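Quick start: load a record and inspect it. Here is Uracil phosphoribosyltransferase:
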Amino acid sequence: MLHVLDHPLAAHVITHLRDKTTKPATFRTLAYQISLLLAIEATRNLAVEDKLIETPLEPMHGRVLAHSPLVVVPILRAGLGMVQPFLDIFPDVSVGYIGLERDHATAVARSYYCKLPPLAGNTVFLVDPMLATGGSAAQALTVAKENGATAPRLVCIVASPTGVAEIERHHPGTEIYVAALDRELNARKYILPGLGDFGDRLYGT
Ligand SMILES: O=P(O)(O)OC[C@H]1O[C@H](OP(=O)(O)OP(=O)(O)O)[C@H](O)[C@@H]1O
Ligand SMILES: O=c1cc[nH]c(=O)[nH]1
Ligand SMILES: [Mg+2]
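Running the structure step on this input writes:
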């Protein structure tokens, strides 16, 4: 199922990310901000448990996160720009890495790295800012499942309708969280209107 962020702050941040005059340092800050909003949305249904505490005035039953380790898996390299908010807000999180690179001519993703902690029984978030043809994310979901993930969630900043359809075709039922669903792909399989090459804009390459 596709979830599209619906929040004025998300709209504000994504517009500045798209703006071609935004420089890498600002781009990285904005990537952090939008990923934080996505992390909050994608964890809306995490389990909580009761905890008896005392405020300075009286005892009360509060709620805290139940023990449910999270694993965040960026798809290198651009996905690295989405990891930090997960590390900052969740107490019990580990990080895995899947390296995939699209061929510039064919747009087909090639795997060059994989290092994953145990995924079985954990809540797994694959993070990659751009869901274009969907080829990279579909491959990464397959790898995550082969390594024990049961229902890995996909968290992206900008998605194309083609990419969403590709995920639904290969991995039906995947929860997909995006900040924006854009119009289409161009002939070079870039998202329109999109924001250009995320990895290049993040790292100034
Ligand atoms: O949906 P797809 O058509 O597969 O395209 C999306 C992929 O392309 C980009 O990565 P890229 O291959 O440019 O590598 P990079 O992150 O190292 O720049 C992006 O970060 C996704 O991983
Ligand atoms: O529009 C796109 C498509 C793939 N990768 C990007 O960085 N941007
Ligand atoms: Mg790139």
